[in-house]
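Side project, low priority. Logging it here so it doesn't get lost.
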Amino acid sequence: MNFEIAPELDELRRSFGRFLDREVRPVEARFGAELAGWRHTDEMHEAALGLRRRAAAEGFYAAHLPEEVGGWGLSALGTSLLVEDAAASGLKFAQYVLGPPNPQGPSPVLLAAHPAVRDRYLPPLMRGDITMCFALTEPDAGSDAQAITTRATPTADGWVLDGTKHYITGADEAAFAVVFAVTDRNLRANGGITAFCVPRESYRVTRVQETLADTHPYEIVFDHTEVPKDHVIGEVGRGFATAMRFLDTGRTYIAAMCVGLAQFCLDTAVDHARTRRAFGQTLAKYQGVTFPLADSKVELESARLLTRLVAYRIDTGGPASLESSMAKLSATETAFRIADRTMQVLGGLGLMRDMPVERIWRMLRVLRIVEGASEIQRIMIARGLGLS
């Protein structure tokens, strides 16, 4: 592996940085009071939609999709670098300008959809005009995804879905859901789970599930929901493999986001230690401050290199499931520790809602659970060692 970033990717990162400064930073500044007060207004929502469409118009939003459907064919490494840079900006609104790792953004999963379905949903999704949601998790099937009970029954014209999904990000405003359902109870994960594209009007969003994050997932219900035959994504029975591929790349991009968030936190802590004075000298003179930050630097660079290794594996067609679990585990746990240390260095200032670190700390606490909790990643890694 060549550890140097190719010149074209460096230029892409600079271009993206200019976009963040020109388009996103002014919006962030305009809504500073709302962000500090945890208030999410309609005006903020419209501003976020506007940023998403501008990012789509400039190509960043769907850059990870192939050129034949209007993307840039950007590599996993290139995408992870942009995700990292967006997070490292510390800007909340930066999360709206890239498709990954947001499950509401344009997903490669749709490339396996029937052409009529793909052509209906993918172009407006890539333009930022609509969003989607990824409906896998259920009340009794979270980490053990193959235990889902939502069922799909074949009919003469297609399928009928019955079941409940929860913790579904963006379900309230999605134009459609990618839904995973059991089509063969005996085979289940080995050929008995199928992915479907289900239009928003075909299911019910029943309740919001409040969390400590700034955004909240939803519960959705399928009650004898009719789905046309051509709305199957990929092959019947192969949906579980589709979900796992989605999660492999998703974990890689979450790792990249965590690396960026950790970088922002570390930079914030270092700047504070250099300027904040206590007992006649700056905090940078106290080893109780500097040693944890030195540890943070080592841990951050380790997580960064592991994340880039996984992206490289994906780009070169190598095995990536075990590596993506390692990267997700390393980056989420590392970033949370660094954010926590940063809050400690900042003292009371770190607890303030008008400081991005407080918001980032909450986000990182969530990321240690979603897309496979840290304990699940450890199980996967242990299996890779032949231990279970």
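Brief comment: Residues 132-237 form a domain with the Butyryl-CoA Dehydrogenase, subunit A; domain 2 fold (CATH 2.40.110.10).
Revisit when time allows.
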